Amino acid sequence: MNTEQLINSLPVDFFFLVVDQNLDIKLPQLKNFYSIYNPNLSQKNSGYLLSQPSTTNFIKKTTKKSGHQAAIVPFKPSAKIDLICKQNNWLRISNPAPLNRLLEDKIKFPSIIKNIPQLPFTIAPYTKQNVDKLIKKYTNIVAQTHFGWAGNSTKLITKYDPTIIPPNSICKFTPHLRGYSLLNNCCLTTNGLIQSPPALQFTGLPQYTTNPFATVGRQWPSMAPQKIINQVKNITTDFAKILIKIKYKGFFGLDFFITQNKVYLLECNPRLTASFAFYTNIEIKAKITPLFYYHLLEFTNPTVPPKENRFNNKQIIGSELTKRDESGVIIKKINDYKIFSNTYNKIKLNV
Mean of the pLDDT values across residues 63-83? Predict the structure, then answer.
């Protein structure tokens, strides 16, 4: 029995909460997988979507007909989802919200990965004195607040400006360096780590965003040198050991910054990633069991992943671009099973 057949045989109905159609995934081959989307919601929030009577009624009606256990699949965990699942005795296909919150906190993350390569950083309040001191040291700096999405918590600082970040906000400051970014998707299972090859990250392309730090797409393969790819693999393996210690499991993604042929871990997305849906389609096209399948199984019926050479699989090819408005919301998506840029350091799109 292959993984797809195993999922279909489970006495479980999976309900994927969709608050943004651009992050939806279509899996008609899974007979017990349902997407729930309500375009009329006043809040784009998974917990709010799950709390709606129309949502809970659909889940209860579907599981009553099938006789299956309900399993809620959020894009991002939340305390509200945790509570609703507990109240209804539904399975939650995600890590607890506090664990997600810990790993997404850009101020706390550096101390979590203290033994893994990361850019020089300073944690300090956003004040004129601190900014002037750091600019004198680095010329330009990047400031990040605790939480953000699509780069909206990351700011380039060339001088102190209280309108950019509220004064005295605790920030992580790093030097603004030249380089490029990579990402990968991974799944930590009971029986080991599975990681995708790294993808080239399309960041701050002016035709797709006004934010120089916003991610607007990605591409497999990354086109990066093998030496860099090997560093990404080793850092991911070391980071997974940290996740094991704090009892994390399932899907996650990592962002890396490369400068002067060295790889630094930037952040972790401890959940499904913005690229997971398209990457899943790439895996299916390449006839590889998707990481997302292992994510579903890890919370319902952990299985032993087969030994495979996924990391170096040359059939993993695909590119995606996501145009965003000023608030970071995706307004257009383009993807195809081909390479959009033949270079990694100076991205030149051929679409």
Answer: 97
Tell me which H or E stretch contains 255. Answer: strand 250-259
Token pair 């030249």 in the structure block, residue: 178
Contact 296, 73 (CB under 8 A): yes
The DSSP 8-state label assigned to residue 299 in this structure reads T
For 107-114, the CB contacts below 8 A with 24+ separation are: 107/144, 107/145, 107/146, 107/170, 107/171, 107/172, 109/267, 109/268, 110/172, 112/242, 113/239, 113/242, 113/265
| Residue tagged 């992580």 (tokens) | 172
For residue 18, the one-letter residue type is: V
DSSP letter for each residue of 69-99:
EEEEE-SS--HHHHHHHHHHT-EE-S--HHH
Range of lowest pLDDT (214-218, 288-292, 305-309): 305-309
DSSP state of 331: E
Amino acid identity of residue 340, one-letter, is F
Q: Is the pLDDT reported for residue 128 higher than 60?
A: yes
Q: What is the mean pLDDT of residues 307-336?
A: 86
Give the span between the Cα atoms of 216 and 345, in whole angstroms.
Answer: 16
Query: Could you give the 3-state DSSP secondary structure of residue 130?
Result: helix
pTM over 0.90: yes
**Which CATH fold would you assign to the domain 100-115+178-336?**
D-amino Acid Aminotransferase; Chain A, domain 1 (3.30.470)
